[in-house]
Amino acid sequence: MISYAPLWETMKRKGASTYTLQVKGAISSSTIRRLKAGESVSTNTIDALCTLFNCDLSDILLYLPEEKK
């Protein structure tokens, strides 16, 4: 499972809002909704976020392995 919790922390540290994502990152409101819901987004979106915040993948997302049943 992918978690976008690091993205929200990075945004907080940098004083960015979802408006910043839309205006400066050219990220659509539907993609922002998907990020908030923890749903999948394209690698182009991940690239745009890393470019916007000049950061690494670890500042945007976190992989959480699912527990095996």
Structure commentary:
The chain is mainly alpha-helical. Helices cover 52% and strands 6% of the residues. The protein has four helices and two strands. A two-stranded antiparallel sheet has the order 1-2. The longest helix is centred in the last third of the chain and has 11 residues, at 43-53. The chain is globular. The protein starts with a strand and ends in a 6-residue tail after the last strand. The model has no long low-confidence stretch (mean pLDDT 94).
What tags apply to this protein structure?
about 70 residues; 4 helices
Give the gist of this structure.
The chain has 69 residues and is mainly alpha-helical. It has helices at 5-14, 18-23, 29-37, 43-53, and strands at residues 2-3, 62-63.
Outline the secondary-structure elements:
Blueprint: E1 2-3, H1 5-14, H2 18-23, H3 29-37, H4 43-53, E2 62-63
Antiparallel strand pairs: 1-2
Succession of helices and strands: EHHHHE
Roughly how many Å is the radius of gyration?
12 Å
Number of helices: 4
Strand order of the largest sheet: 1-2
- What percent strand? 5-15%
Number of strands: 2
- In whole angstroms, the N-to-C terminal distance is 15 Å
The parts where pLDDT drops under 50 for at least 5 residues are none
Largest sheet: 2 strands, antiparallel
Strand pairing plus helix content: what structural class? mainly alpha
Mean pLDDT: 94
Q: Which range best describes the helical content: under 10%, 10-25%, 25-40%, 40-55%, 55-70% or over 70%?
A: 40-55%
Instruction: Assign an overall shape.
Output: globular
